[in-house]
Amino acid sequence: MKYTDDELLSRTLARDFRAIARLITRIEAAQPRARALAAAMRRPAGRAHVVGVTGAPGAGKSTLVDYMAREYRKEGLSVAIIAVDPSSPFSGGAILGDRIRMNLAAEDPTIFIRSMATRGLLGGLAKATLESVHVLNCAGFDVVIVETVGVGQAEVDIVRTADTCVVVLVPGMGDSVQIIKAGLMEIADLFVINKADREGALLLEKDLLTLLSLAEGGQDQWNPKIIKTVATTGSGVGQVIESLKGHLNWLENSPQGQVRRLKVISQALIILASEWIAQQALHGSQDIVAALAHDCVLRKLTPLEAVDRLVAWSKGKR
């Protein structure tokens, strides 16, 4: 079924899953009209709690998200999930296989699940993630869970998107130095030690507690929680949900929480504006980019010289 723009907008606001999926598809394709439709969406009452879930591959993020969604549904809350998968640097394709592990959520017709490819973007998220979160928020979902790629130590962009960041760790994947290197101490509002039935879970918890004790924190600051789970059985997931509620309460009712929310929204505005400006500036630049790249390969230009010429070309369009 083909929707007019007005139908797509009204059906999305009414939380029609098919319309939401089509609008997100348009956003991923960077269609200008899709951005205009998304910008026109408003929902003054209520605000979705955006929960980011990140961690290393194999940490059990998808399984944890699956059980989290079920716990939220038990409480009567509406849930949407965005699962970001890495794209191939060669073909540009992605398996989009995270939802395969979300058996419980996939069987629930009231839970919206959307897989999304990074399409070469670093940081653990896709280019369309921020705008898609906005769409899901306006569609009236109570909770939006964003599962990041989770492929290394640099995938921390979720902190610029989510209200609450959950970092999933597992025993046996490195010492406390790895946790510091990953920058996870700064972004985590909640640490989840998954697969806690494995050897080393208590040692990992001890390392985390030691590191957290060294962090500077004020009276009104949020102190990250540490929860042990076994996501395959759902053990500990209820505690995760309660801690997420506690963090949401802190965001809404403390001065520091308001500062945190203001910072997240400010960063999101900068990211969205930067993407739009770059898209406008480089529109129709395929030929000149190809020519400049060719000159770089032949060593006629350095990459920096080529960038200067590309910027000058962009200014000349105006």
Please name the defining characteristics of this protein.
single chain, 318 residues, alpha/beta, Rossmann fold, 2 domains, 7-stranded parallel β-sheet, 7 strands, 48% helix, 12% strand
Give your account of this protein's structure.
With 318 residues, this protein is an alpha/beta fold. It has two domains: 43-273, 3-Layer(aba) Sandwich (Rossmann fold), CATH 3.40.50; 282-317. Helices cover 48% and strands 12% of the residues. The two termini are 39 Å apart. It has a seven-stranded parallel sheet with strand order 3-2-4-1-5-6-7, sandwiched between helices. Helix 1 (5-13) packs across helix 2, helix 10 crosses helix 11 and helix 12 runs antiparallel to helix 13 (303-317). The chain has helices at residues 5-13, 17-28, 32-40, 61-74, 103-107, 129-138, 176-181, 184-187, 201-214, 237-253, 255-281, 286-297, 303-317; strands at 49-55, 79-85, 112-117, 143-147, 164-169, 190-193, 225-228. It is built from 13 helices and seven strands.
> What's the rounded overall pLDDT mean?
82
| CATH structural class of the largest domain | Alpha Beta
Q: The CATH topology of the largest domain, please?
A: Rossmann fold
Strand order across the biggest sheet?
Answer: 3-2-4-1-5-6-7
Query: Which runs of at least 5 residues are low in confidence (pLDDT < 50)?
Result: 88-95, 120-124
Total helical elements:
13
What is the name of the CATH architecture of the largest domain? 3-Layer(aba) Sandwich
What's the main sheet like?
Answer: 7 strands, parallel
Strand proportion, as a percent range, falls in 5-15%
Helix-and-strand structural type: alpha/beta
Determine the CATH superfamily of the largest domain. P-loop containing nucleotide triphosphate hydrolases
Radius of gyration: 21 Å
Number of strands: 7
The N- and C-terminal alpha carbons lie at a distance of 39 Å
Helix content: 40-55%
- Quickly count the domains: 2
